[in-house]
Design brief:
The structure holds two protein chains of two kinds. Chain A is mostly helical. Chain A has a domain of 28 residues. By secondary structure, chain B is mainly α. Chain B starts with a helix and ends in a 10-residue tail after the last helix. Classes of the chains: A mainly alpha, B mainly alpha.
Amino acid sequence: MSARDDKIRQVVAELDAHVAEVEASVAALKALLASDEVPEEQEDPS
Amino acid sequence: MARELRKAARDSGEDVAAHHGLVRMIPQWERGNRAPRERYRLLYLKVFADALGSLPHGMDTVDFALRLAEVRSRAASLPGPGQIRAIEAAARAKPGQTMTPAEIRALAAEAIAHLHEVAGKLAELSALLGDDEVGGGKP
């Protein structure tokens, strides 16, 4: 495998990781907007 | 991408929609609003397989082209910095949050920082693949 192929694979892996980070952060922010549907205390009292 | 799809179709002796039609449909496909028909999916595969044509036979080019297309499509679907800031502002304005305003701000800043990295990686990838446009990136 050439250095270029390695580089392409590396960049795609890094791109994938950054996209996943943005998706996760945006999902967390959106969850905060929807959070009033969830009761504050959900833990089992037992 | 429209030019690439048209070229792939021409090389295969197929017809595709007019250029302006492709230009209108491609963003809808990339945002996931509409699924491309099979022949367009095959043309996408051909475009990415051709872009990676110099890869060694040992590499699973089709799988890799699919992964590349999937990652690019996800990148194109991400909200822009302005949209992330708007979500952040709405989340901070909402009472009874489980996170402090500073934590919400930090979360949005992290998302935007990664978004900038995404744009950089898309440009780097386009340069490596010899694209004539920065492929489907944000923002």
